[in-house]
Specification:
By secondary structure, this protein is an alpha/beta fold. The chain is 35% helix and 17% strand.
Length: 260
Amino acid sequence: MKIIVTGLKILAVIVVLLMVAGAAFSFGWLGNELTTKTHASEEALASLASSDAVVISEQRWITFTPTSKVPKTGFIFYPCALCDARGFAPLLKEIAATGFLVVLVPMPSNFAIFDADRALEVKQTFPAIEHWVIGGHSMGGGSSAMFLHSHPDNTDGLLMWDSFTYESYNISEQSLPVLTIYGDSHHSPERPAQFEEAKQYMPPHARYQVIAGGDHFQFGHFRAEDIAHRTTATIPREQQHQQIIAHSVAFLTAIEQGTR
């Protein structure tokens, strides 16, 4: 009998520890540095300085505000899993420079699925913005689809970078414009099949823009030592970034002008 009681106590302790660990991850109590596998490069960190074209503010999230005009359209960006969100700063800063408010949203324990509704708070902070586009990279893009699944009438467009949704977050009946940008060189052999499988859960009018030779990790600006063993791109990072920025800006422009 004592053995059984002791075993139950041990099991109870294990369950409690697992619950605490789960809460620590989901609420970000561990600190994002402990859950960062892919770090922002020095160039990415340097790009967080404001310029003549973009004012950058780092508080609850990182905000890129253009100086050329008062922005009417905002882009809420969710980063990928286990990465330093600041690795996307160089691209988002360039997008903002063309006249859009861009809000980069760091996530608890670097997992966007833990707070996919954070866009609601962003929107409330910037009431003057007339049009909102949500999106992100990898898990961040998938989490933006989670947001749309729960709040179908809350944004005007979905912009996904090398990401897709799942059956549980089916958005196939939504009418908002959708653009998915992806590279055709991927470290995961299953990725092409996953993209095809996911199309049935996306709106039928969704557009898919391929970057020939682009890969998953060149959607950001990360430390070379963190991604060297996973990089499969056959084009330079700068070339991939130029295409990502151009396609993203064209999509945001169309949303603002109502031509989508």
